[in-house]
Amino acid sequence: MSRTDRAGRVIAAPPATVYDALLDRDSLEAWLPPEGMRGQIQRWDPRPGGGFRMVLTYLDPADSPGKTSEATDVVDITFADLTPPQRVVQQAVFEADDPSYAGTMTMTWHLVGTDDGTEVTVVATHMPPGIDQAAHEAGIASSLANLAAYVETTR
C-alpha cells in the first residue's frame, strides 16, 4: 500500500513569490533543508524535465544517521510539472545502498492564494518504506516554516 505524507501552512506572501522561491537555486539552498540540516545544490536545471541534485548534511549525525552516508542524504530531484504560480511537482530519488530508501517519491507543492497570502500544501506519495512518516512530515513542516521565514523577510 502506498503511503501519503503531507504538511501545510499559510505563508504571508503572494503565490507568485512563493512559487519563485520554489524555483530559485539560492532560495532553495536557504530554506529547503529542515531544522538540523544544511543543503547544497550541485546540479541545477529549473525547467520541466530538469531538476537538481541536493546534498543535505546533518548538523549532528549522531541523532539522525544519513541515507547516503553517515552524515548526508543525497537526493536527485526532477521537475515533473511546473504550473506557475499554482503547483510544482517533484520526483525525488535518494542515493542510498539500503533498499528501504529505493524508489521515486513524488512531492507536489500546491499553492492557493488566500486573503492572508498563500496556502501551501505539500503532498508526498510513493514513499520509500525506510522513511519514517512522522519524521518526514515534521521535516516538511520545518521546510515550510523556513520557506515562510524566507519569503516573508525578503519580499
UniProtKB/TrEMBL annotation:
Family membership: Belongs to the AHA1 family.
Protein name: ATPase
Record-linked Pfam families: AHSA1
Signal peptide (from-to): none
Gene3D superfamilies in alphabetical order: 3.30.530.20
Taxonomy of the source species: Bacteria, Bacillati, Actinomycetota, Actinomycetes, Kitasatosporales
Entry superkingdom: Bacteria
Boundaries of every Activator of Hsp90 ATPase homologue 1/2-like C-terminal domain copy: 12-152
